């Protein structure tokens, strides 16, 4: 059962206060079916209002006004809850999605700095999958040589061949969340391997990518390392060119998390306000939508 949280809402339902959490879309989600077995309070009305705190943490105050009719006269009780627990939301969503994956691997694709590693690790933990990183596997294949060194010593073509070989091996595996290198999308053969699993594109605005990369430096990302200028400007300039060159290769992914749309949905003016947990949750929602379309299953 869901009720929209966009405005002050009045509900007229019988609920047990321990049975709901809020969804990032701004709706209330009941964790269990509501039934008389749970001995709920006879709830006459309830209201809730999303609050924006100065530290950007979203919380929801849920006021419940309950009239108990079994006592002589009416008793009014009002409580406030803070049910916005992202860990719980993530856990619930991954429990919903996990059985429908049938062990299929999840491939995260996106530009450098889009958060494939950060989000991939969260997804792997929540889905009880193993996290892997295609760049790390390439480095291992080349005797522990870093990606930057591989580019310097052998060139990009050599790196791309190793990347494809690593992907071929991964495509035979089950139960992995894989953070891929940003350029993996350019070779059609790589898509053939990724189609064994489910691919999800983290679509992040260039400004945010450049900010993140400027913060950590370009040493480990050889394709961004030549330009002059300050770290943000050179990252932004080079990322724009790469994005242009890659065209719409990322759109081959089965599902997409668009950070711009997600921020708007959650009421943020800037994608920088989105936490990795927000993004991981949205990734699971998008994977679920893909699976529903693919298999016709529904969790609702
Ligand atoms: N949602 C986020 N908000 C802020 N910084 C992030 C977010 N996701 C990732 N980062 C930071 O951006 C940088 C690149 O992230 P990473 O996960 O390594 O990206 P990728 O694997 O796609 O290259 C890291 O320093 C990481 O901490
Ligand atoms: O976009 C690219 O072509 C690359 C992205 C890098 O991975 P990340 O996306 O993990 O930074 C790495 O594979 C290599 O530096 C090339």
Automatic annotation (TrEMBL):
Catalytic activity of the protein: shikimate + ATP = 3-phosphoshikimate + ADP + H(+)
Taxonomic superkingdom: Eukaryota
UniProt xrefs under Gene3D superfamilies: P-loop containing nucleotide triphosphate hydrolases
Annotated PANTHER family: SHIKIMATE KINASE (PTHR21087), SHIKIMATE KINASE 1, CHLOROPLASTIC (PTHR21087:SF16)
Compartmental location: Plastid, Chloroplast
One of the protein's GO biological processes: aromatic amino acid family biosynthetic process
Keyword Lyase belongs to the record: no
PROSITE patterns: SHIKIMATE_KINASE (PS01128)
Protein known as: shikimate kinase
UniProt key word Repressor: no
Predominant location category: plastid
